[in-house]
Amino acid sequence: MTTLSSGFARARRWLRDHPLAFDATLAFCTLVAMICSSFTDPGDGHGPPAFGARTPELFSVLLMTLTAAALVLRRRRPMQVLAVTAALAAVEYVLMDPSAPVVMSTVIALYTVASRTDRPTTWRVGLLTMGGLTAAAMVFGSTPWYSQENFGVFAWTGLASAAGDAVRSRRAFVDAIRERAERAERTREEEARRRVAEERLRIARDLHDVVAHHIALVNVQAGVAAHVMDKRPDQAKEALAHVRDASRSALNELRVTVGLLRQQGDPEAPTEPAPGLAVLGELVTTFRNAGLPVEVACADRDRLPAAVDLAAYRVIQEALTNVRKHAGAGARAEVSVVRVGATAEVTVLDNGRGSAGRRPGTGPAGGTGADGCGPGDGDGQAVGGHGLVGMRERVTALGGALTAGPRYGGGFRVHAILPVEARTGEPDRPGTAGGTGLRR
User: Fold this and answer.
1) How far is 296 from 305, CA to CA, in rounded Å?
2) Is residue 440 predicted with pLDDT exceeding 50?
3) Is 43 helix (H, G, I), strand (E, B) or coil?
């Protein structure tokens, strides 16, 4: 039984791959069925049909052969094949009595037209074929017009039209489902690529923030140590201690960031590095140790969502790093975090002028557009020239806005507006708070 079913499956696949051979086989089977039926006399309806009670005329055999041969081209020329078979069937009804079942070929041709065209065309062609052949059978046949053979012509042609339309509708439905599945698959792939790109960008921002801040402090403190090594060894030791602390902090934050990449399938694992406004005092202390006076004012004591808290911390960190690198000697910085309605405003000001009167992304040597987000002069922005770009990306990702530019009278200003209510459904990270209580 298994061998028989597998053989049928192979034959079906072969015929599907060779449609012309299938149509030729169908045409031959139709010819055999028409010739066998032409030897059958249906009788008067009170008894079974009698086989061999009549013999078809040679002209009828010729018409049956011609209509069956036309079915070989039914896929390539469906309308032409229908016209030929219907015309030959009508000729059979008009000239021969009793007529041979040439209409069988017309039924198959009409099914093909209905399955390969639209519904309005099926209705028009089907009604024309049904009406024409039924009228020819009723008018020119020897049997009464109300005989079952005449109504059989109407029924079989109508059934062919309905069956072909149903097959066409099913094919269209299956094709639509397949197309939607393919579109959904493409959408999933595009979404996966988009998420990968966003994650790469987020990781790049985190690595930039960590490396830029700490390497800048290490560079400053190492320069101080080298400058005072011979004359003031105690101050040099203190600077080297700050170098050690900054490098240890950088390694710890890098370990946390890289650790996020190694975690798989852990729903409890953190998705963002730990720093937030709760440790703002420690951040400010590192800059003060590097020789940058910083004043902090945090009027907001409410808890902020984790993403907003982290973004505010990173904005302050990057802005102070740029102040330390570009504001020049004697510069001072002011940091403020204020809750205004449904937003948190972060502002970093300084009074520096820079080594050449320029700041990152603002001078003509920076090569940036009007948004001032490109690399600056000389050193450029910290680590790769993406400081202001990273800040703006962080803020806009939360639905906020960031402006950065020179202040009137000298100095630089970074101002970020972060929507607090935008992430109210996100759980806060333990240990983070919107206000540090610092007022220095």
Assistant:
1) 21
2) no
3) coil
CA dist 414 → 317, 336, 365 (Å) = 11, 11, 20
Q: Distance (Å, rounded) from C-alpha 193 to C-alpha 291?
A: 44
Residue 363 DSSP SS3: coil
What sign has the CA pseudo-torsion 413, 419, 425, 430?
positive
Phi, psi of 253 (to 5 degrees): -70, -35
Tokens 């094949």 found at: 81
Instruction: Give the phi and the psi of residue 160 in degrees, each rounded to 5.
Output: -65, -40
> Of 349, 331, 256, which is closest to residue 290 (Cα–Cα)?
331
Q: Rounded to an integer, what distance in angstroms lies between the CA atom of residue 152 and that of residue 237?
A: 110
The residue-averaged pLDDT of 262-266 equals 56
Question: How confident is the model over 93-148, as pLDDT tens digits?
Answer: 888 777 778 889 999 999 999 998 888 888 899 899 888 888 888 888 777 777 77
d(CA 74, CA 71): 5
Give the DSSP letter string of 228-297: HTTT-HHHHHHHHHHHHHHHHHHHHHHHHHHHHHH--S-TTS-SS-S--GGGHHHHHHHHHHTT--EEEE
Tell me which DSSP letter residue 298 carries.
E
Q: Residue type at 158?
A: G
CA angle 367, 369, 373 (to 5 degrees): 80
Question: Residue holding tokens 């900054």?
Answer: 246
Element (H, E) at 437: none
Specify the pLDDT at position 357: 40
Is residue 174 packed enough to be buried (19+ CB in 10 Å), middle (13-18) or exposed (0-12)?
exposed
**N- to C-terminal Cα separation, the chain:** 91
pTM: 0.48
Residue 266 — very low, low, confident or very high, per pLDDT cuts 50/70/90?
low
Alpha-carbon torsion angle 350, 355, 360, 365, nearest 10: 150
Output helix, strand, coil percentages for the chain, rounded to the nearest 5: 60, 10, 30
Q: What's the CA gap between 397 and 389, in Å, rounded? A: 12
How many angstroms separate the CA atoms of 138 and 135, rounded? 5
- On whether the CB atoms of residues 375 and 369 are closer than 8 A, the answer is no
Q: Phi-psi region for residue 334, left (φ > 0), alpha (ψ -120 to 50) or beta? A: beta
Return the pLDDT at 288. Answer: 85
Element (H, E) at 339: strand 333-340
Residue 385 carries which side chain, given as an amino acid letter?
A: G
Q: Phi then psi for 86, rounded to 5 degrees? A: -65, -40
From the list 154, 153, 71, the residue with the least C-alpha distance to 113 is 71
